[in-house]
Structures are given as structure tokens and as C-alpha cells.
TrEMBL record:
UniProt cross-references to Gene3D superfamilies, sorted A to Z: 3.90.320.10
Species annotation: Phoxinus phoxinus
Listed GO biological process terms: DNA repair
Entry protein name: Uncharacterized protein
Length: 204
């Protein structure tokens, strides 16, 4: 004898149609449902319904599950959790952003013993910027992503996102293929566009 799970609207051998229905999904209609254990306290364990043996109490915290609210620690709370979404949740009570740069942070002394040539020394010195210069550069370039000319100037250049690919180029055909992809550019996806649009909000 084989017992199979009935399927919705499927005829069996006796021409009996399955009348399966979907259960109601939602919050408890009445909070007195949580007091079911008191109603069955005089029954023996074998006669109690399953809900009366689960330790349901109105003192326990309710948590969100994929089937609605359930008690914390119950089977539903850890077997049917709310699936995470990719949408960003904006917190209203988030802590303030720390002031940058952090005053207590200092770079550890370097152990490098390399002696630069005069040309290398002046080149490294030219890369140094003060905090005031950094603020001015940030203010001047904050809106550059919206400028089409900036994108045209940036497209043929080897940027940080392409630097790793350049380091692993092997052979002429591989280099030509990479150059073609760099010149062609990368199509901006919906996620990339959303990240660019929310960059200002994140920076605030």
C-alpha cells in the first residue's frame, strides 16, 4: 500500500476530488489564542491539541516570520524566518557619523629602508595633500559623475577597477581583448545606477 500526498483538484481512483485549501496567513485575530494552555490544563497530555503543548504564553515576545507573527523561540520563529531583501532599510535612530579623520588614529612607523632618488622623492612629495586641499578636491569632484565629459575622459584610462585585469594579461590577444572591453565601457545596471544615486545620501 502506497500513501501519497493528495494534490489540489486531482481526481483519485474513486473519482473523489481533493479539496485541499490554503491556510489563512496573517496575524492572530484574538490575543486570547495565546491562553490556550489554560483552557486545556485539566486534560492529559495525550488529549491536548498540539497548540496546547507548545508553551504558548502572552508573556513571550512575538517575532516576524514568513507566515506572520510567532513567539520567539518557537519552531516557526527559526524554521520560517523572514527572508532578507536587497532593499536598503533606512534607520531613523542611527548613531552619528564619526568626524573624519579620527584624531586618535596615527600611522605606525614604517620599517622601509628604501632610499628614494631625488626624482622619486619629489614625485612622492607631490602626492601629499593637506586636509584643506582634500576638502577642496572633494567639493570640486562631488558632482563629476553626472558630467558626460568626465565619463568620456575616464573611459580610455586604466582605472582601479581595471588594474587587476591589466596585471594578469598574458599575450597579445588577451591584451587586445581587454583594451576592446575598456574602450567599449561597462553597461550601467540598475543596481549600479541605484548605488550612484544613493551615494550622496550615504556620504551625508
Amino acid at each position: 500500500m502506497v500513501i501519497r500526498k493528495p494534490r489540489l483538484k486531482r481526481l483519485t481512483e474513486g473519482r473523489v476530488r481533493s479539496t485541499l485549501y490554503k491556510g489563512v496567513v496573517g496575524d492572530p485575530i484574538d490575543m486570547s489564542l495565546l491562553m490556550i494552555e489554560e483552557a486545556y490544563k485539566d486534560f492529559c497530555i495525550g488529549e491536548k491539541p498540539l497548540a496546547a503543548t507548545m508553551g504558548i504564553s502572552d508573556e513571550k515576545t512575538l517575532v516576524e516570520t514568513s507566515l506572520g507573527l510567532a513567539q520567539r523561540g518557537s519552531v516557526l520563529s527559526y524554521q520560517q524566518p523572514v527572508m532578507p531583501t536587497k532593499s536598503v532599510k533606512m534607520h531613523q535612530d542611527h548613531p552619528p557619523y564619526p568626524p573624519l579623520p579620527v584624531g586618535e588614529y596615527r600611522l605606525a612607523p614604517t620599517d622601509c629602508v628604501h632610499v628614494c632618488t631625488e626624482e622619486e622623492y619629489f614625485h612622492l612629495k607631490s602626492l601629499n595633500v593637506t586636509l584643506d586641499m582634500a576638502y577642496k578636491i572633494e567639493e570640486a569632484t562631488s558632482e563629476q559623475a553626472a558630467d558626460q565629459e568626465w565619463h568620456q575622459l575616464r573611459r580610455p584610462r586604466i582605472t582601479s577597477s581595471r588594474f587587476r585585469e591589466v596585471c594578469f594579461v598574458r599575450g597579445v590577444s588577451s591584451a587586445e581583448s581587454l583594451a576592446e572591453r575598456v574602450l567599449k565601457g561597462t553597461r550601467q545596471t540598475a543596481e549600479m545606477r541605484r548605488g550612484a544615486d544613493m551615494e550622496y545620501e550615504v556620504a551625508r
